């Protein structure tokens, strides 16, 4: 009985040694240099993918493009006047407001131009007040008051806007300004109290060039730009 037990024990021990040897040959042994098991749900942090700290993964992505990528020098070519020094200012506006679109701005500027010129001729102070800065409004209002005091009336008919292009752009903090050169065709006449023509012509189309500067606070809820400066162009 004792001999049978000892023989059985030896057989099981031999099998155990064989199994352990096979497991070691397949799985290997720990050396202390193994990589820890990877958690598939762990989010990588910058620099944790085996690269250098602060390397290619350690970046902040900018809106609408690769991180830190400079804008193309021709990015604003389609909306800027030849030789205009406006790209840097427009880039800063787009950086602070990624939805800014140069073409849409120019379309808005042309609409504002027509509305302001028409409102000024009609003496529509309420319409002008929403479109002009305080200083520009005061100048327009004074001109309207002088015209009314003389008993004169202005008539302006829009024919077309031939060209509108950005000639400058600047950002100081959150305050942005964009200068636009607008070439338009107008029929403009001023009549005296008796209906006589005192300036302009009622049937002649004239080319008019104006340089207007629009401004707004970037990040403000109000998306509208106001006219802050005017000058005659060439």
Report on the structure:
With 234 residues, this protein is α+β, with helices and mostly antiparallel strands. The chain has a domain at 80-232: Nuclear Transport Factor 2, Chain: A. Helices cover 34% and strands 28% of the residues. It has five helices and six strands; from the N terminus they run αβααααβββββ. It has helices spanning 2-27, 87-96, 102-122, 125-131, 134-149; strands at 80-85, 153-172, 175-191, 197-200, 206-217, 226-232. Strands 1, 2, 3, 4, 5 and 6 form a six-stranded mixed sheet that branches. A hairpin with a 5-residue loop joins strand 3 (175-191) and strand 4 (197-200). Helix 4 packs antiparallel against helix 5 (134-149).
Please specify the SSE layout and strand pairing:
Elements: H1 2-27, E1 80-85, H2 87-96, H3 102-122, H4 125-131, H5 134-149, E2 153-172, E3 175-191, E4 197-200, E5 206-217, E6 226-232
Parallel strand pairs: 1-2
Antiparallel strand pairs: 2-3, 3-4, 3-5, 5-6
> Which structural class is indicated by helix and strand composition?
alpha+beta
Name of the top-level CATH class of the domain at 80-232: Alpha Beta
State the distance separating the first and last CA atoms.
Answer: 123 Å
Q: At the third CATH level, what is the topology name of the domain at 80-232? A: Nuclear Transport Factor 2, Chain: A
Globular, elongated, flat, extended or rod-shaped: what is the shape?
Answer: globular
Strand tally: 6
Unreliable stretches (pLDDT < 50, length at least 5) are: 1-5, 19-70
Order of helices and strands: HEHHHHEEEEE
Strand content: 25-35%
The biggest sheet amounts to: 6 strands, mixed
């Amino acid at each position: 009985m004792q001999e049978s037990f000892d023989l059985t024990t030896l057989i099981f021990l031999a099998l155990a040694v064989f199994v352990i040897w096979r497991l070691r040959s397949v799985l290997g042994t720990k050396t202390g240099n193994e990589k820890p098991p990877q958690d598939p749900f762990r989010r990588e942090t910058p620099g944790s993918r085996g690269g250098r700290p602060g390397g290619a993964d350690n970046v902040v992505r900018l809106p609408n493009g690769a991180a830190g990528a400079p804008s193309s020098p021709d990015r604003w070519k389609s909306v800027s006047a030849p030789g205009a020094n406006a790209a840097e200012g427009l880039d800063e506006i787009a950086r602070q407001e990624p939805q800014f679109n140069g073409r849409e701005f120019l379309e808005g500027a042309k609409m504002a131009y027509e509305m302001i010129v028409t409102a000024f001729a009609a003496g529509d102070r309420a319409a002008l007040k929403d479109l002009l800065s305080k200083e520009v409004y005061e100048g327009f209002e004074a001109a309207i008051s002088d015209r009314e005091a003389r008993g004169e009336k202005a008539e302006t008919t829009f024919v077309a806007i031939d060209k509108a292009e950005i000639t400058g752009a600047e950002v100081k903090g959150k305050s942005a300004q964009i200068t636009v050169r607008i070439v338009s065709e107008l029929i403009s006449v001023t009549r005296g109290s008796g209906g006589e023509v005192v300036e302009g012509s009622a049937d002649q189309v004239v080319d008019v060039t104006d340089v207007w500067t629009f401004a707004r606070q970037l990040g403000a809820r109000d998306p509208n730009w106001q006219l802050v400066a005017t000058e005659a162009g060439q």
